[in-house]
């Protein structure tokens, strides 16, 4: 695991999370029941990508069209946080950033998680129309 991966594991442990390392040497951890992944680029320890995979499943062609439009709107308006629709019809939220070679994760890691969560919540709310819709979608799954 590269320097950034080790730094992320140490930071997450210090913050009370229980990070796990995958066979690809990515770092997986949970925040309030949601699984996040620090996608470690073994060739670039100055690039940080944090993912919230599969947070929303798109169930129809009509919903796909709306999802793409909503994702585009969020990507234009949310700093750092982005939404993509994967080939398996699931929406992922993520943030990517370049960092210096001596990053202090305390300066930005938690804020990055908040941005990713906000992007995913905004996407779901805009798609479903209200907080009630979010609850209904969650209960349905």
Description:
The chain has 141 residues and is an alpha+beta fold. It has one domain (3-140): 2-Layer Sandwich (Yope Regulator, Chain: A), CATH 3.30.1460. It has helices at 3-14, 61-77, 109-128, 131-140; strands at 20-21, 27-31, 34-39, 47-57, 81-85, 90-98. The protein has a six-stranded antiparallel beta sheet. Helix 2 (61-77) packs across helix 3 (109-128). The mean pLDDT is 89.
Please give the order of strands in the largest beta sheet: 1-2-3-4-6-5
Tell me how many strands there are: 6
Summing up helix and strand content along with how strands pair, one would put the structural category as alpha+beta
Q: What would you report as the Rg, rounded to the nearest angstrom?
A: 16 Å
Largest sheet: 6 strands, antiparallel
Cα distance spanning the termini: 35 Å
What is the mean predicted local confidence, pLDDT?
89
Domain module count: 1
CATH class label: Alpha Beta
**Shape, please?**
elongated
Uncertain segments: none
CATH fold-level assignment = Yope Regulator, Chain: A
Q: What is the name of the CATH architecture?
A: 2-Layer Sandwich
What is the structure about, briefly put?
This protein is of the alpha+beta class. The chain has helices at 3-14, 61-77, 109-128, 131-140, and strands at 20-21, 27-31, 34-39, 47-57, 81-85, 90-98.
Question: What would the keywords be for this entry?
Answer:
141 residues; alpha+beta; Yope Regulator, Chain: A; six-stranded antiparallel beta sheet; 4 helices; 6 strands; 42% helix
Topology:
Blueprint lengths: L2 H12 L5 E2 L5 E5 L2 E6 L7 E11 L3 H17 L3 E5 L4 E9 L10 H20 L2 H10 L1
Antiparallel strand pairs: 1-2, 2-3, 3-4, 4-6, 5-6
Helix pairs in contact: 2-3
């Amino acid at each position: 695991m590269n320097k950034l991966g080790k730094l992320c594991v140490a930071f997450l442990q210090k913050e009370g999370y229980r990070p796990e390392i995958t066979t690809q040497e990515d770092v997986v951890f949970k925040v309030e029941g949601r699984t996040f992944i620090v996608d470690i680029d073994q060739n670039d320890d100055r690039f940080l990508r944090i993912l919230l995979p599969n947070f929303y499943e798109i169930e129809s062609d009509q919903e796909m069209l709306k999802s793409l439009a909503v994702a585009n709107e969020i990507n234009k308006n949310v700093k750092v946080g982005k939404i993509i629709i994967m080939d398996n019809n699931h929406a992922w939220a993520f943030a990517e950033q370049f960092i210096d070679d001596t990053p202090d994760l305390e300066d930005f890691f938690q804020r990055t998680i908040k941005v990713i969560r906000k992007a995913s919540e905004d996407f779901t709310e805009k798609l479903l129309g209200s907080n009630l819709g979010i609850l209904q979608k969650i209960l349905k799954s």
